[in-house]
């Protein structure tokens, strides 16, 4: 599809996300020929820079861009401008509007604009309200879209309030709530695997699936984000958004069509069906942990409480695991286990579908848990799909061994796999919200995690288990899978 001419306004223009992800994503789109000639990026933040200074900072000397491609960067830099404003003050928005009008004229752009809010979340409401006060929400002479970074709210009440206030200024179809997991190629492939192949979907239900496991493990700690993370924790940072979005894609019914409304309607039904946890289940089926100093692979690892920006007595979780059910026809009685954590042994995200064992064991006198069929969607790294099944060990007797059939994305030669931000920005430029989270689902995901966060806050007797950095989290979480001998799949 042809991309219309437009301006991408980035609030938080000198921030980390802008430098690391957004500008590189736009540069790649430019290089791949997606951007029209009449295209501008306008960086906005409080610091004063001239256009040239910002071009140097964000493009020419941005370490996250291929600095050797000097000529291409120089041409791309011409598409990047800068405007300093105080985002909290309405006068800045008159300045912004004037600047945009000049840019539209100078570059013959027909007043189409994306406003990307890559600022601290406390500014989202103010920016939305101020944009609308100066009429930058009006679409009479060109469309206006707003991309809102996560976290969308701090809890259910604040997410509700933010949603309402944004909807006072913009229409739902102008709002793009970004969840970068949805832009990952391997995540989108979940739907293709399910709905483009005839062999999986017939098995995709309670009759054949014993449990679903989703892990998103990181080997890094909180790095320089201690200040933010200590107020957030794994539940808000990863589960409320990324992991629950994955759950929705694994569990949803086939949509009537491959369009934004149909897909988002089906995802929303999953959120409606997730069974809320009782207080007792919150104690039993939700485990939180915090990494402690340790030595891992002969390296000294800092404990969470020693990290910069973290309170020395902090009870913020750097690990969380939940068991829950989805109360609908397809998933009745199938437990879902999800977990995420920092400073785990490796970086890996995967969705694991565990199929039920055979009813009758012909080749062994007992069922062996590790001989179940499993289907693994490896989201990152070493992106791919793996199917585990039983094979006769060659030789005398009949011994069955579990073997893997796998596909790796890297085997697709010459295939360019775009970064999540690249894909999502391109979609927004084209007005396609399919891979963005809709307001109702975001709120329902909050409805699920909110009681957990409340219980953790109000009841100090719910433990925060320490786990040595470099391990798979607290013991209690390792042992939470119900069923004899069943364990999480801990990939290396
Ligand atoms: C972000 C979280 O949303 O996702 C980070 O704020 C986390 O804490 C990151 O590290 C993980 O993203 P990815 O794409 O590396 O899995």
From TrEMBL:
InterPro entries: G6P_DH, G6P_DH_AS, G6P_DH_C, G6P_DH_NAD-bd, NAD(P)-bd_dom_sf. Pathway: Carbohydrate degradation; pentose phosphate pathway; D-ribulose 5-phosphate from D-glucose 6-phosphate (oxidative stage): step 1/3. The active site is at 242 (proton acceptor). Residues 191-489 form the Glucose-6-phosphate dehydrogenase C-terminal domain. It catalyses: D-glucose 6-phosphate + NADP(+) = 6-phospho-D-glucono-1,5-lactone + NADPH + H(+). Substrate binds at residues 180, 184, 218, 237, 342. PROSITE patterns: G6P_DEHYDROGENASE. NADP(+) binds at residues 46, 150. Its EC number is 1.1.1.49. Residues 9-189 form the Glucose-6-phosphate dehydrogenase NAD-binding domain. Pfam families: G6PD_C, G6PD_N. Keywords: Carbohydrate metabolism, Glucose metabolism, NADP, Oxidoreductase. HAMAP family: G6PD (MF_00966). Belongs to the glucose-6-phosphate dehydrogenase family. NCBIfam families: zwf. Catalyzes the oxidation of glucose 6-phosphate to 6-phosphogluconolactone. This is Glucose-6-phosphate 1-dehydrogenase. It comes from Marivirga lumbricoides.
């Amino acid at each position: 599809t042809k991309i219309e001419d437009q301006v991408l306004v980035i609030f938080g223009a000198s921030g980390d996300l802008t430098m690391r992800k957004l500008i590189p994503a736009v540069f790649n789109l430019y290089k791949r020929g997606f951007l029209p000639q009449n295209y501008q990026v306008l960086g906005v933040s409080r610091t004063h820079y001239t256009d040239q200074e910002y071009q140097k900072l964000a493009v020419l000397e941005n370490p996250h861009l291929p600095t050797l491609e000097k000529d291409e960067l120089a041409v791309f830099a011409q598409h990047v401008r800068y405007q300093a404003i105080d985002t909290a003050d309405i006068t800045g928005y008159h300045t912004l509007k004037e600047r945009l009008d000049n840019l539209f004229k100078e570059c013959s752009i027909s007043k189409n604009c994306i406003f990307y809010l890559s600022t601290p979340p406390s500014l989202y409401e103010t920016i939305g309200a101020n944009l609308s006060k100066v009429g930058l929400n009006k679409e009479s002479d060109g469309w206006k879209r707003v991309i809102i970074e996560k976290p969308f709210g701090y809890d259910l009440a604040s997410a509700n309030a933010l949603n309402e206030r944004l909807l006072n200024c913009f229409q739902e179809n102008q709002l793009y709530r970004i969840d970068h997991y949805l832009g990952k190629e391997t995540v989108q492939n979940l739907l293709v695997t399910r709905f483009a192949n005839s062999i999986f979907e017939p098995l995709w239900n309670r009759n054949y699936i014993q449990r679903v496991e989703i892990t998103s493990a990181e080997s890094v700690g909180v790095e320089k984000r201690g200040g933010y993370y200590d107020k957030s924790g794994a539940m808000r940072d990863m589960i409320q958004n990324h992991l629950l979005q994955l759950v929705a894609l694994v569990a949803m019914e086939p949509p009537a069509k491959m369009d934004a409304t149909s897909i988002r309607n089906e995802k929303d039904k999953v959120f409606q069906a997730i069974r809320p946890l009782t207080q007792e289940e919150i104690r039993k089926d939700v485990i939180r942990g915090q990494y402690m100093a340790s030595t891992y692979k002969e390296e000294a690892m800092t404990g969470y409480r020693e990290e910069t920006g973290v309170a020395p007595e902090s009870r913020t979780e750097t690990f969380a695991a939940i068991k829950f059910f989805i109360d609908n026809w397809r998933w009745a009685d199938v437990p879902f286990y999800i977990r995420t954590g920092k400073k785990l042994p490796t970086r890996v995200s995967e969705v694991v579908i565990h199929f039920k064992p055979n009813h009758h064991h012909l080749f062994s006198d007992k069922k062996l848990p590790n001989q179940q069929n499993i289907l693994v969607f490896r989201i990152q790294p070493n992106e791919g799909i793996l199917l585990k099944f039983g094979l006769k060990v060659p030789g005398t007797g009949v011994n069955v061994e579990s073997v893997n059939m796998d596909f790796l994305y890297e085997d697709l030669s010459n295939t360019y796999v775009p970064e999540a931000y690249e894909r999502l920005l391109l979609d927004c430029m084209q007005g396609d919200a399919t891979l963005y989270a809709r307001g109702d689902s975001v709120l329902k995901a909050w409805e699920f995690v909110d009681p957990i966060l409340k219980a953790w806050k109000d009841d100090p007797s719910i433990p925060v288990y320490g786990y040595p950095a470099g391990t798979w989290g607290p013991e209690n979480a390792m042992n939470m899978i119900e069923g004899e001998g069943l364990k999480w799949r801990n990939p290396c």
